[in-house]
Write a structure and sequence with these properties.
This protein is elongated. It has one domain: monomeric porin ompg (Porin, Beta Barrel). The protein has two helices and 14 strands. The longest helix has 16 residues, at 18-33. A hairpin with a 5-residue loop joins strand 4 (118-137) and strand 5. By secondary structure, it is mainly β. A twelve-stranded antiparallel β-barrel has the order 1-3-4-6-7-8-9-10-11-12-13-14.
Length: 341
């Protein structure tokens, strides 16, 4: 949950409790391969996109556990603001948003795959508990608008292939975002983005099994189809998430998450051209090609405890945008719970 955060776990080969290890490592993968979808009030068109900064960075993001089914549930709160942008068929001089988002992720890991790798799959279903948005509609006399909405956002499905060599782990994967969230170009608030996004990515983790030092990163490239209701196409996007961590035991670890996002190609469409001309006529700065960019950091931690015979993993993080252009500048807080079925 834009911005938003997650945190997972890690596999220690030297630890005694193997059931805890398997649980932790598998769940660590969940966040790295399942992006949460977000309401339509973020990047590219609407100052947002299907990428939520920081959600790819996590503990041991390229590690994967034993065969089986897993569940991860993420509760996210974020708030932020943005300068001029388009939203649906409206042009706004600025806007502020507050979002509560819950994303359920179902994960399956196989024993084998192709090319000497293991296969995994993730289905992510995001529910917007509440999104509140207020903004000033551009005009000779700006008009204040506000509102709130609840419902399902755009879902996504991910497939990965995983390789391991000594302390090095690699994931190659692909995420497909589907326009399943409700959308109406005449509304101020939309829960879906009304276009498809294709996102191939690569993830890496190095973990020292005795000292507990970890370096992880994931990089991806997103391509968006056109929003036919607004004749607007958001540009291609590059995202890079990294995670540095110290694992003190199989139960506790702390880390630093960071992310860099940059829109590679410009937004385009007749409505963007009209919006630029309209803002210029009002004596305001135009949106130009509205290419987005952001960089941020934040702390993360994970804790594992027993509930009966089951390992329950708690992950928390806070992320802060340090430098943002043409996106909602956001603070994001996340708490996640993950366990094996």
């Amino acid at each position: 949950m834009n911005k938003t955060f997650s945190i997972l776990f890690l596999k220690y080969t030297h630890l005694r409790h193997k059931s805890c290890i398997a649980m932790t490592t598998l769940l660590l993968m969940i966040l790295s391969i399942g992006l949460a979808a977000a309401p339509d009030t973020w990047a590219g068109e609407g100052g947002g996109s299907h990428y939520m900064p920081g959600t790819r960075g996590d503990f041991a993001m390229a590690l994967i556990g034993p065969k089986g089914w897993y569940l991860r549930n993420e509760l996210v709160y974020l708030e932020g603001d943005i300068c001029p942008m388009t939203m649906g068929k409206g042009v706004y001089l600025g806007a502020e948003q507050k979002v509560w988002l819950n994303t359920a992720k179902v994960v399956y890991l196989a024993d084998s795959g192709i090319l000497g790798a293991r296969f995994g799959a993730v289905l992510s279903i995001p529910l917007v508990i509440d999104v509140s948005l207020s903004g000033d509609v551009a005009g000779p006399v700006p008009i204040k608008r506000d509102g709130s909405k609840t419902g399902f956002a755009d879902s996504n499905v991910t497939g990965i292939l995983n390789w391991k060599q000594d302390n090095f782990n690699y994931n190659a994967g692909f995420t497909l975002f589907a326009p399943t969230g409700s959308y109406d170009a005449d509304r101020m608030i939309n829960l879906g983005r009304n276009y498809w996004t294709l996102n191939p990515f690569f993830a890496f983790t190095w973990l020292h099994p005795k000292r507990g030092h970890e370096v992880s990163f994931t990089a991806g490239y997103m391509t968006n189809t056109e929003n036919h209701d607004t004749d607007y196409q958001s540009g291609d996007e590059f995202h890079f998430d990294f995670h540095l961590a110290q694992h003190f035991s199989s139960k506790f670890a702390i880390g630093l998450d960071g992310y860099y996002y940059k829109q590679i190609s410009k937004d385009k469409g007749p409505f963007l051209d009209q919006a630029n001309a309209f803002l210029t006529s009002l004596g305001k700065d135009s949106l130009g090609t509205f290419k987005g960019e952001t960089f941020g950091l934040g702390p993360a931690l994970k804790y594992t405890f027993k509930l009966g015979e089951r390992d329950i993993n708690i992950i928390a993080k806070w992320l802060h945008d340090l430098d943002t252009t043409n996106r909602f500048e956001t603070d994001t807080t996340m708490c996640a719970v993950a366990f094996k079925f």
